Backbone:
């Protein structure tokens, strides 16, 4: 849709994250700890841990920090710290659907705080599954259209498990099932194709068009969630105008 750009939204989000690098590393560390707790410390046999490590590397998290998080999650440092994965779902202004993924040490403390953030920002917390049915869980890559030809990218991507390759705003967007994310990432990198952004995400099947005022309200509620220490990621189905990102 004219005036909307998924890549512009991603750049805006990454820009905010760059300004909060310490918080991002903390989230990466928690994800690694939980993956190691659930599946062991060897990423060769623990796919969730491999995902978490790749995500941490993409945020330039130091190797020492990654190693410490793995050791902590595996219980090799004597730590008794445990986290629980909890997904909160609900609605924001204009009926925009929101998914808030958290890693929580104390659910009794976090749950009312998340509910309060919904309430304070013209939103409403819903039941588990109330909005996630309208999203697809998938791997996603963005590559500059100047970096590789369509023919070459289609060939390597589809052979490595990609479901779709489309071009928008000077970027190739590649999607794949989560299970094929690492295989596809390795295939792209082995062909020396630079990746601008990648990750496993919840992508909306349908979007809600927003004017600049409503988009500003959505960005504020997303910011409020992302500023919470227990929140790992926030997903929504709003179409954010580029003008709102520049406001």
Residues:
């Amino acid at each position: 849709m004219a005036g909307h750009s998924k890549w512009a939204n991603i750049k805006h989000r990454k820009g905010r994250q760059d300004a909060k690098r310490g918080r991002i590393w903390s989230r990466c560390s928690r994800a690694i700890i939980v993956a190691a707790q659930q599946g062991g410390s060897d990423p060769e046999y623990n796919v969730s841990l491999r995902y978490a490590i790749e995500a941490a590397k993409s945020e330039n998290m130091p190797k020492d920090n990654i190693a410490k998080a793995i050791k902590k999650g595996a219980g090799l440092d004597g730590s008794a710290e445990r986290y629980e994965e909890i997904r909160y779902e609900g609605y924001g202004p204009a009926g925009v659907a929101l998914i808030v993924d958290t890693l929580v040490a104390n659910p009794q403390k976090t749950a009312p705080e998340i509910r309060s953030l919904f309430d304070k920002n013209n939103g409403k917390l819903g039941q588990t599954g109330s909005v996630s049915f309208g999203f697809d869980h998938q791997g996603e890559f963005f590559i500059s259209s100047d970096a590789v030809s369509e023919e070459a990218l289609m060939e390597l991507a589809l052979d490595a498990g990609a479901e779709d390759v489309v071009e928008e705003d000077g970027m190739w967007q590649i999607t794949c099932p989560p299970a094929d994310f690492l295989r596809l990432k390795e295939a792209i990198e082995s062909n020396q194709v630079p990746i601008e952004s990648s990750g496993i995400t919840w992508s909306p099947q349908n979007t809600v068009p927003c004017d600049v005022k409503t988009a500003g309200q959505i960005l504020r509620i997303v910011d409020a969630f992302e500023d919470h220490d227990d929140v790992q990621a926030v997903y929504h189905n709003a179409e954010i105008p580029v003008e709102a990102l520049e406001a």
Summary: The CA atoms of residues 54 and 182 lie 9 Å apart. The mean pLDDT is 91.
